[in-house]
Structure formats: C-alpha cells, structure tokens
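quick one, 227 residues, struct below
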Amino acid sequence: MAVQVDSLKIETGLKDKVYIALKAAIVQMDVYSGDEAPKLDERQMAEQLGVSRTPVREALTRLEQEGLVRTVPRRGAFVVRKSQQEIIEIIQAWAALEGMAARLATQRATDQEIADLHSEFVTFDNSDTATANIDEYSEQNINFHQRIVQLGRSALLLSLMEGLLIHMQFIRRRSVRDSDRTEQSVSDHILIIKALEARNADEAQRLVIAHALSLAQHVEDNVDYLD
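---
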C-alpha cells in the first residue's frame, strides 16, 4: 500500500511561515524615511527565504487584506503609508485603548512587573529628563508601550490593539528622531511608571493618554512627509 503524504498540511505550514517572516520584516522597516512607500520585491524575497514565489505572493495577498501592503498594477507591491489624518486617528484610538490598559495594569500587574518596567526602560538616569541613543531608544519606546498593554491582562484589548500596533511602530520609529521628542518621551515614561507604582489608576490612564495624544499633536503640527 502506498504511503499517503498530507501535502496540504505541509504547504499550509510553509505559507504561514512565509507570511510571518514577511510581516516581521515589514514591521522592522522605516516606512516613512523616504519620499515613497517601500517597494517589496517578490523575486528577491522568495530567494532570501529559499522558497518559490507562490507562497510569497500568497503572503502578500494576506498582508494586503490586513491593510499593510498595496498592490499597484504593473508596478508591484508596496508597504502602505497612511495619510496624516489616518495616522492621527490611529494614534487617538491607540490612546484610548492603552489608557484603559494602564488603568487595568494598576490593578493587575504585580509589584515586580512594575519594578521591571523601571529597570528595563528607564536605564539612562533616574530624573525626569534623560538622554539616549535615538535609534536604540526607538525600539525601547515601542516595547514600553507594548508592555503596558500586556500588563493590563485583557485579551480583548490586546486583540483590538494588534491591528493598530504596526502603524504605531512605524510612526513612533520616525517621530522619536524628530525635534526633542526623545527627551520628552523618556520623561513621560518615568511619570507613567511612578503612577503605576502608586497604583493610581486615574493618573496612569491620564498620563498614557496624554503621552499618546502628544504624538498625535506632533504629527498634526510637524509631519509634512505624509500624503
């Protein structure tokens, strides 16, 4: 009797791996650094992953359905760059959700988890002002906000914020290099951690929302590289 191989299951696993790899690569891109949206070379990506172009093409279709990729006829696939107004609305939605996560974190996070926030993300000094390597701090900035959400321990909030997170990463990665936002961001983080340590739900929520909305204001006032 011939051995039956479940090729569909194997192929599905490959599709998922290619999709995850491409999405991870897109997340790390500095989408707003150039004059145009980054182009995704289907052939090059297939070669780098060591796969045929079919699973890459299917992964790009999935990413397009999620709003991360846009296919232009006869030109190829591009990472989506949001308009200024779209970015502002994304930040406003994130502010509301992260604010609630911070409120929940004051009730649900352990003392050690909050202490870990301080040791992980405020390593530059212990005052209300600090300096840091901007490129390095950009990733720490993103990780800080992800950690706040995780400490809220709400599966629904995590799910709702997942679709916003990538776009928040894109704009934070760019904005943290602008003007004096790095110093202000570190200062804000210290105050947020202090509110969490004090278990002050109202203050933690207020500070997190204000911090996010300051980014929205920065985008509105200073960002001229979005359509």
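The longest helix spans residues 84-108.
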